[in-house]
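Hi, here's the filled form for the chain we discussed.

Project: internal
Contact: R.S.
Residues: 398
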Amino acid sequence: MNALNFHSLVPGDFNYNYLDEIQHLIKMSIPIFFIFLLYFSKFKKEDYLKVIKTWIIIICGIIIITNICKISLSSYNNEVIKGSIFNWFSRNYIYDELASKGFFMYANQIACLLVTLIPVSLFYYLEKKLNILYLIALLTTLLMLGTRVSNLGSILVFIALILAYIIHHGIKKEKIKWKKLIPCGIIIIIYCAILPFSPTISRYEIYDYLMPKNISGLLASTTTSSISDIEYIKNHYEEKLINENFILNSYPYEYDPDFWMEILNEPVGNRADYRYLEIKMVSRVVEINNNKWDILFGITNDRIQNIFNIERDYILQYFAFGIIGCILFLGVYLFLLIRSLKNLIKNFSYYNVCVTSSIILFLFIAYLSGNILGQISCFIPLLFIASMSINVEKEKKL
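And the returned structure, exactly as it came back:
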């Protein structure tokens, strides 16, 4: 009812479709039912290990093979890459021609899944029987993906979890398996040696080169005394580094020139920041609608997607579903986090450290990169990992 009571400056009010919205709400409800399903399952640590091995073999195998054969899709678009990991050192290609995601749809989602797997995979390597080759495949794949989360986040997580292992075993006065840690140290050294040539670093080098070149003209004061706002926006949005899709299609400037004039006069860092503009556009739509109930119920996910997808989970869900929707659909993740932290406090073990780390990483990456909490391919593996702590606790009680 709240969704139907909506108006905007753009004709069509962003084409709300209640069937699409219901479909998305059903998808967002899956974690609630799935966690109950896993709770009553009879998985043991060895069963979880088999599943994790299978994930690594399938996902990493596809990305590594397609990268080496140069048939992978780019992580930044859906075009086929032009160079494999062996071409990184030649500097003959730009970042989007090298970063590869195999045949998967979104690189950020795969990066989130694989980074989330690092803690539990490291646990099984150090404490159980997981071959070091699985860790090598995991980190190699994360390098190939070429995103910030995959390239920089993965190695930081890997190092942090190794330090956590040493500290934990020192506190507990348990034997540290140095023979297993030495290969991990070698992996870190090789990874750090390759990292400067990765697509992520190449991407930042390109931005550092382009941004200063444009700043002198972009920061100059502008006047519109002799030209209308609409004409001024039309003639200057490109030099102001405004994304063409945003200003022409997502939230057309001719319907709200006042908003876009404010954006054009913001600092260059804001204008060139896609995530900043995504939030600003949706915030403006909410402001124009001026409905107090939007705080509780949101303006629907369908309308936001018809404007532009916000690549910040939690912010997206707040605007789409409001406070009540966030409690209903995201509360399960808070429950899992609290439950995991509670288990960690009650039983301070390296196993619980790793499982809790996986949950925290997933929730943090969801905010950092977006497009995570609403994707079945991402939240089901997270729920599976979170259930490890619950089922192992049940196993001990039995």
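Let me know if anything looks off before we file it.
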